[in-house]
Amino acid sequence: MARRTKIYEGKAKILYEGPEPGTIVQYFKDDATAFNAEKKDVIEGKGVLNNLLSEYFMKGLNQIGVPTHFMKRLNMREQLVRQVEIVPLEVIVRNYAAGTMSKRLGIEEGTQLPRPIVEYCYKDDKLGDPLVTEEHIAAFGWASQQDMEDILSLALRVNDFISGVMFGVGIKLVDFKIEIGRIYDGDFQRLIVADEISPDSCRLWDIETGQKLDKDVFRRDLGSLTDAYTEVAKRLGVMPKTSTPITKPTLIN
Ligand code: TYD
Asked: Would you say the CB of residue 179 lies under 6 angstroms from ligand 1?
């Protein structure tokens, strides 16, 4: 079989040319990075879990009429997605204070916010994805006023959907990040949810115990990341249906 053409390799995913024009194969790696890649590790099984979890969220969004780039899962690590032009923004929605918001504003982690707060960061690893305002976005032409209205509406619909789904399995959606893609249908362009939605880009806390079930487990050395993501996958009923465990069993001496 001919080797596929790699389009891009990021921190957690590789993108290959898809089988049809306008499609891309998104491969989920086991690599974990935090603090702008200053902390790195390979977490066996993370890619498989994120592939399945992102499929679950994106499929659900498509079904309730929130457009996403997701087309179908191809195997345990790959999914077929629509090719998009990525809007250079990280769109963050917060329901409870945590992470940089807590640090920046001195609000205790876990404080419920009066309403969901949407923030935008400019996607640039060299600059550490700085927080920007709609003024910067408009002035530098990263997105138009109409785009910003559509992005806000997509972000809030994603927030309501994922919050509801997670609430149903006893998990609080503290915050998350999405990326937005632009697609062209003839003369029209549309914005859709792209990239991934997984515990790598969300904060998920158990409602009863407050246990963290997201990438903070890795960022803050709180235990096994695979166990945390597996717990989320189990509760949502999306564990891989194979007899092979995601990680190798620990050998007992
Ligand atoms: P934030 O608290 O701003 O940053 P950090 O995770 O470094 O403390 O992040 C808010 C949420 O958005 C959190 O769930 C992580 C996610 N996020 C990403 O996945 N990638 C990013 O580049 C950024 C800025 C945030």
From this structure: no
Query: Whole-angstrom Cα distance, residue 232 to residue 172?
Result: 11
| pTM for the full predicted model | 0.93
Domain boundaries, the chain: 6-84+225-236, 85-206
Q: What is the whole-number distance in angstroms between the Cα of residue 200 and the centre of ligand 1? A: 9
Residue 106 has pLDDT above 90, yes or no: yes
- Superfamily of domain covering 6-84+225-236: Phosphorylase Kinase; domain 1 (3.30.200.20)
Given this model, what pLDDT does residue 86 score?
Answer: 98
Q: Show the tokens assigned to 2.
A: 């001919």
**pLDDT tens by residue, 95-104:** 999 999 999 9
Q: How far is Cα 209 from Cα 214, in angstroms, rounded to an integer?
A: 14
Close Cβ partners of 214 (under 8 Å, ≥ 6 residues apart): 199, 200, 202, 203, 204, 205, 228
Q: Is there a contact between 193 and 67 (Cβ–Cβ < 8 Å)? A: yes
Residue 36's pLDDT is 85
Ligand 1 atom closest to Cα of residue 174:
14
CATH code of the domain occupying 85-206: 3.30.470.20
* Centre of ligand 1 from the C-alpha of residue 203, in Å: 8
**Percent of the chain scoring above 90 in pLDDT:** 90
Region 10-18: mean pLDDT is: 97
